[in-house]
Design brief:
The chain is α/β, with parallel strands linked by helices. The protein has two domains: about 170 residues, D-Maltodextrin-Binding Protein, domain 2; about 120 residues, 3-Layer(aba) Sandwich (D-Maltodextrin-Binding Protein, domain 2), CATH 3.40.190. The protein is about 45% helix and about 20% strand. Strands 2-1-3-10-4-11 form a six-stranded mixed beta sheet, sandwiched between helices. A five-stranded mixed beta sheet has the order 7-6-8-5-9, sandwiched between helices. Helix 1 packs parallel to helix 10. The chain is globular and about 65 Å long. The protein starts with a helix and ends in a 7-residue tail after the last helix.
């Protein structure tokens, strides 16, 4: 027994030393960050900005590879199968890491295949309505929806996407009945609110800001728990409707394969925390309609991930959309 425990202790000590050495040597070659959206998207633009700074911090090239497709899942599948050595990372959102796992019949990865490296921005939605709708505040919209003889219509870029589920979350929170009109993409779903074919919807800031500023859409509230810098006059739901617990956002997180050595993850996390806490980076994230945050610890990020999977997964099941895609 003494020999067994001695051998085990030696193995553990050797593993710790190996992990420490890996972190000290890391990186020795280029790092690839896989982005699940096309080049030019808000997510892609922000990743390219911090990739340059990560390259400076680590002293090795950081390459951004775009892998769009399959509702953000192609990128996750690729990285789940990559070596767990810290040289292949992936950016993901609530759609791929919380919603799709329940929404789709077949997903070729699992949340257990990844470990978070950095949680750095939230992606809030803006509740927008056609300006001809007789509501200028959230309480007025709620009253209008409840008093209307026929349900108000709301648009989204598709059944089961974050905007759709955020509206369903709002409906449940305030006891509303509204009809969902799914579209194939974000521009179509927003343009039909402008045209008056549907009355309202949740829209991404980047896609709706110009229309709000031109008066073609009216913004009533943001779905985050804090106001967004690009629309400082638009209240949160906590302010607009006395709903302090209301938050319906997507988010961006950087992930690595689950078996990546802990010292490597910690080195990447420390570098990303320094980069994303910089006021310049926060300003650049805000400029594209995102809500920058100081990256929380990895344990706190894991807790947030678990709460998001429960929140959105349970809503998908309640709407009887589980396995519908």
């Amino acid at each position: 027994m003494k020999r067994t425990w001695g051998a085990l202790a030696a193995l553990v000590a050797g593993s710790l030393m190996l992990g420490s050495a890996q972190a000290q040597d890391y990186p020795t070659k280029p790092i690839t960050i896989v982005v699940p959206l096309a080049a030019g998207s808000g997510m892609d633009s922000l990743v390219r900005i911090y990739a340059d700074k990560l390259q400076q911090a680590l002293g090795k090239p950081v390459v951004v590879e775009n892998k769009p497709g399959a509702a953000l899942m192609l990128a996750l599948q690729q990285v789940a199968a990559a070596p767990a050595d810290g040289y292949t990372l992936v950016v993901s959102t609530s759609s791929a890491m919380a919603i799709n796992l329940v929404l789709y019949k077949k997903v070729n990865y699992d949340v257990k295949d990844f470990t978070p490296v950095s949680f750095y921005v939230k992606s809030p939605f803006i509740l927008v309505i056609n300006p001809n709708l007789n509501a200028k505040t959230v309480p007025e919209l709620i009253k209008l929806a409840k008093d209307s003889p026929t349900p108000l219509n709301y648009s989204s870029p598709g059944a089961g996407v974050a905007q759709h589920l955020s509206m369903e979350y709002m409906k449940q929170r305030f006891g509303l009945t509204m009809a969902h009109v799914p579209y194939r993409n974000t521009p179509q779903s927003i343009s039909d609110i402008v045209a008056g074919h549907v009355q309202l919807g949740f829209a991404e800031a980047g896609a709706s800001l110009p229309l709000i500023r031109e008066g073609k859409l009216r913004a009533l509230a943001v779905s985050s728990s804090t106001r967004i810098p690009t629309l400082p006059d638009v209240p949160t739901f906590a302010e607009a409707a006395s709903a302090p617990d209301f938050e319906a956002v997507s988010w961006h997180m950087l992930f690595a394969p689950a078996a990546t050595p802990k010292p490597v993850i910690e080195k990447l996390h420390a570098a990303m925390t320094k980069i994303m806490s910089d006021p310049e980076m926060k300003a650049k994230a805000s400029a594209i309609g995102l809500l920058p945050i100081d990256p929380p610890s990895i344990p706190d990020t894991l807790k947030y991930l678990a709460s998001e999977r429960e929140k959105w997964g349970s809503l998908v099941r309640k709407l009887e959309l589980a396995g519908s895609q």
